[in-house]
Write a structure and sequence with these properties.
Layout: H1 13-35, E1 49-61, E2 71-81, E3 87-98, E4 102-112, E5 118-127, E6 134-147, E7 152-163, E8 170-181
Length: 182
């Protein structure tokens, strides 16, 4: 067929994000099985699994009517696995209690900066705040972790980021909680 054109339309980034982000999250969660030995040496410290629970809140600057009121109050439970150099793929489940009750899932990546009590975090947030699961934010945050023992500790974190959906405001979140390393 001579002169046949391939039809193309505008690039739909939201559609691409819905297809690529779950695959990327699954790939990040599969990395720990490849990077760590099956049996850690006896008598060693934690192997890299981190379980955390925190509570926090904040607001959405410039939120649209679907996200009113703009306040946010939530409980987050997460699991991360430190792969190497402090990098840890993370998956968190969030119960939002304000505005209204909602559920969110946050696949992401944490970096526990070696030899310091600080960590950085990047995560995508998909929430049911508008009645169905929709990507809401790309969160970028930093925090401070106070380790009480090799296993137990407390943390404080602040997040902000970029809205991924129409009518969503810029997030400003602060949370505090506890973590356990296994």
């Amino acid at each position: 067929m001579e002169g046949a054109a391939i039809p193309s339309g505008p690039l739909n980034l939201r559609l691409m994000a819905r297809q690529i982000l779950p695959l990327a999250a699954a790939a990040l969660l599969a990395l720990p099985g490849v990077a760590r030995p099956a049996d850690p040496p006896s008598g060693s410290g934690p192997v890299g699994l981190v379980v955390s629970a925190d509570i926090g809140g904040g607001g959405q600057l410039g939120a649209g009517s679907a996200y009113s009121p703009p306040s946010v109050f939530e409980l987050e439970v997460g699991v991360a696995y430190e792969v190497f150099f402090g990098l840890a793929p993370q998956l968190s489940m969030v119960l939002g209690m304000s505005p209204g009750t909602s559920f969110a899932i946050r696949p992401g990546l944490e970096w526990f900066i070696p030899e310091t009590p600080f960590f950085l975090r990047a995560a995508f947030d998909a929430s049911t705040q508008v009645g169905y699961l929709e990507w809401r934010w790309l969160l970028l945050g930093a925090g401070f972790a106070l380790r009480i023992t090799d296993v137990l500790g407390f943390m404080v974190e602040g997040d902000s980021g970029f809205p991924l959906a129409r009518g969503v405001g810029v997030p400003l979140l602060v949370r505090a909680g506890a973590f356990a390393r296994f």
